Amino acid sequence: MTTLILEVPGMSCGHCESAVKGAVGNVAGVRDVGVDLTSKLVTVAGENIDVNAIKVAIDGAGYEVVAQYERS
Amino acid sequence: MTTLILEVPGMSCGHCESAVKGAVGNVAGVRDVGVDLTSKLVTVAGENIDVNAIKVAIDGAGYEVVAQYERS
Predict the structure, then answer these.
(1) pTM of the predicted structure, to 2 decimals
(2) Is ipTM > 0.85 here?
(3) % of residues, chain B, pLDDT over 90
(4) In whole angstroms, what is the distance from residue B47 CA to residue A12 CA?
(5) Can you spell out the DSSP letters for chain B?
(6) Which residue numbers in chain A have pLDDT < 50?
(7) Among B39, B67, B72, whose Cβ lies nearest the Cβ of A41?
(8) Contact indicator for B26, B71 with CB cutoff of 8 Å
(9) Distance between CA B4 and CA B52 in Å, rounded?
């Protein structure tokens, strides 16, 4: 299981949360998606996650990823 | 400015949030500390942050860091 955290400042309400969760949840390998509207962080857990596919999915939902964090 | 994200599962209430924010906020170089009790993530922003000093501060407040994430 890998966990990745993405910063998506444009998320401001429940609609944003649902849109991002739905888009990321459809990406291959993703098991769980968490959204925190205060910190603007999206936490993605899964197996063999393709970071670029997740960024494309978020972009497609109308939001921009400004930073990504990986476990070190 | 560097941003670091730490996973601290033991945080469950406002007391935990205040304790962790206070401890991390005292570490040299730290400018801003955010705590999300749902995702159990602590977001730390600052200049020349010493990750180990932050982990020691959180440990000293009675909480355990189980994972750390750095911007990639």
Answers:
(1) 0.87
(2) no
(3) 97
(4) 27
(5) -EEEEEE-TT--SHHHHHHHHHHHHTSTTEEEEEEETTTTEEEEEESS--HHHHHHHHHHTT----EEEEE-
(6) none
(7) B39
(8) no
(9) 12
Parallel/antiparallel/unpaired status of strands B2-7 and B67-71:
antiparallel
B72 and A CB contact within 8 Å: yes
Report which residue type is found at B37: L
Tell me the two tokens of residue A71. 């476990």
Gap between the Cα atoms of B60 and B18, Å rounded = 14
Three-state secondary structure call for residue A59: helix
A3 at the B interface (CB within 8 A)?
A: yes
Place of tokens 């990986």: A70
Q: Reply yes or no on whether the pLDDT at B36 is more than 90.
A: yes
Closest CA of chain B from A61, distance in Å: 22
Residue type at B24 in one-letter notation: V
Which is nearest to B3 in space by CA: B56, B51, B46, B65? B46
pLDDT digits (tens, 9 = 90+) for B9-33: 999 999 999 999 999 999 999 999 9
